[in-house]
Specification:
- With about 500 residues, the protein is α/β, with parallel strands linked by helices.
- It folds into 3 domains: about 130 residues, Rossmann fold; about 140 residues, Alpha-Beta Complex (Hect, E3 ligase catalytic domain fold), CATH 3.90.1750.20; about 90 residues.
- Helices cover about 50% and strands about 15% of the residues.
- It has a 4-stranded parallel sheet with strand order 2-1-3-4, with helices on both faces. Strands 11-15-16 form a 3-stranded mixed sheet. Strands 12-13-14 form a 3-stranded antiparallel sheet.
- Strand 1, helix 1 and strand 2 form a beta-alpha-beta unit.
- Helix 6 packs across helix 10 and helix 13 packs antiparallel against helix 15.
- The chain is flat.
- It starts with a strand and ends in a 12-residue tail after the last strand.
């Protein structure tokens, strides 16, 4: 008995779609019963049809690769994918793992040998998705020009009722006014964020009930609030646009393509205060507010929260960035003095070099590199051999078309598939050659040999010496450094004194 993986996709999780989901399940159960198939599992996604990041579809693909199913069933091809690339990917995976694809609309049924229309149907569905996307964009612009809110989450301090923004009946509008007031008084965005966090003020993500909500305020959040014209009572929408229907990538739209509608709702901030803040932000941006670069800048991190350490002049050393921004409620200081850390790191580097000079490390590593080169050369030969075979198949198909053994449409579908495989192989060849060049270049081996043979006088830890050997330093709560070296070889015993 054939084992079937049933894929179902619905667009949203509203009541209507839940009913549709039940109906589809019943339909597939009945269909499998008639065919005398056994349903292995249902794979249900509630997402956009053009997305390639669907969890259940990815699970289905993994099960197909593991050969847990014999047949993949969907209502129609567009349920699986609405773009050509994803459709052919699924087709290749199915063919490789001897999994058949069947759609209930009868368009695709590889059990009966009619899988040749895959490319055509995929193209049709992608075009339809593109037209739908354009219609949605036109509708969103029309709504925006009417002063209606298109976003999913209203600006902090507002709520959306019937596509209109209204001031919330809670403390959030007061928080917005506080942010503007404190910035005008001279406080920086990070200082404001830290005070709000320590006062236990809910963040915008918490108020919106987002799944990835966090109780920590950040300077970037404060900055976005200070720049948002919504607090003047104006609506600025269509700031971003998707690159294409098959990609979630977005880019900023030019000012002339944005929809700016004034006086659509009640303001929280006066025009005088808003304009003053914009002027102050320009002035402060031009000043050098960045910390001076110190020896361990961009190298040293907190071992608990993972944030970069900040140099504090008064402590002559570094503290956890999270602690520095949000206080002890968020993380501990992890303080370490720069002079002490320099001594420890220099001592470890000396021991590190000594280990290289007094062991067989160089010879062992040389052997490992030789084996890696051999492995990549073998892989490269296999890719190149497969490429030759594909190109021969492509040439043969041209002859078959000329001799009218196959139709033009079949030829085009075949060539499309061949070209995709060729493209994939050519990419693998490029990557393998690059890796081979990198290994053959053996910069790491050369570095080891250089260290082994050269005389190094290490009296001071310079930035050049630090970055030559050290990739990253994690600082534990008691100030102990954990050093990660750039050379991925056995490390000396950690020195903690």
């Amino acid at each position: 008995m054939l084992k079937v993986g049933v894929y179902i996709r619905v667009s949203t999780d509203n009541v209507e779609q839940q009913t549709s989901l039940k109906n589809q399940r019943d339909l597939f159960i009945q269909y499998a019963k008639e065919k005398e198939w056994s349903i292995y599992d249902f794979y249900v996604d509630v997402e956009s049809g053009t997305s390639t990041k669907r969890k259940e579809l990815n699970r289905l693909i993994k099960d197909a690769e593991a050969r847990k199913i014999n047949v993949l069933v969907a209502k129609e091809l567009s349920r699986l994918a609405r773009n050509v690339e994803l459709s052919h990917k699924i087709k290749r995976i199915a063919e490789t793992n001897n999994v058949h694809i069947v759609t209930l609309d009868g368009a695709i049924n590889t059990l009966e040998g009619n899988g040749n229309m895959f490319g055509l149907y995929a193209w049709i569905y992608e075009q339809e998705a593109q037209r739908t996307s354009e219609r949605i964009k036109i509708a969103l612009r029309s709504r925006a020009e009417l002063g209606l809110f298109n976003g999913s989450v209203a600006p902090y301090g507002y709520e959306c009722i019937d596509s209109k923004l209204y001031i919330r009946n809670d403390d959030t509008p007061k928080v917005v006014r506080r942010i503007f007031s404190e910035y005008i008084s001279g406080k920086g965005i990070d200082t404001i964020a830290r005070h709000l966090y320590n006062d236990g003020i809910p963040t915008p993500a918490m108020v919106a009930g987002k799944s990835n909500k966090n109780d920590k305020w950040h300077g970037r959040t404060i900055q976005l609030i200070l720049k948002n014209q919504a607090y003047l009572g104006h609506m600025v929408q269509l700031k971003q646009s998707t690159v294409s229907v098959v990609s979630k990538a977005r880019h900023k739209t030019t000012i002339d393509k944005q929809a700016v509608i004034k006086n659509t709702h009640e303001p929280i901030i006066s025009e005088e205060d808003f304009n003053l803040v914009q002027d102050l932000m320009k002035i402060r941006t031009h000043k050098n507010y960045h910390q001076a670069l110190h020896l361990f800048t961009n190298t040293i991190y907190c071992s608990d929260c993972g944030k970069g350490m900040h140099y504090k002049k008064n402590r002559k050393g570094y503290v956890c960035g999270t602690f520095n921004k949000h206080g002890s409620k968020a993380c501990s200081s992890h303080i370490v003095r720069e002079a002490n850390l320099s001594t420890i790191v220099l001592s470890e580097i000396k021991q590190f070099i000594s280990n290289i000079k007094t062991t067989d490390l160089y010879d062992n590593f040389k052997l490992e590199i030789h084996n890696e080169i051999l492995k990549h050369k073998n892989a490269l030969k296999n890719y190149e051999d497969d490429l030759i075979i594909l190109k021969k198949r492509k040439s043969k198909s041209i002859s078959m078309l000329i001799d009218e053994i196959i139709t033009k449409s079949d030829y085009e579908l075949f060539i499309t598939d061949i070209d995709e495989q060729v493209k994939s192989l050519e990419h693998k060849i490029v990557i393998t050659k690059q890796a081979l060049e990198k290994i053959s270049d053996s910069s790491l081996l050369n570095e080891l040999n250089k260290i082994k043979n050269e005389e190094l006088f290490l009296d001071e830890l310079t930035p050049e010496l630090l970055h030559r050997f050290v990739k990253k330093i994690d600082i534990e709560e008691d100030g102990t450094p954990i050093i990660s070296y750039r050379l991925t070889i056995p490390l000396p015993t950690l020195i903690n004194n």
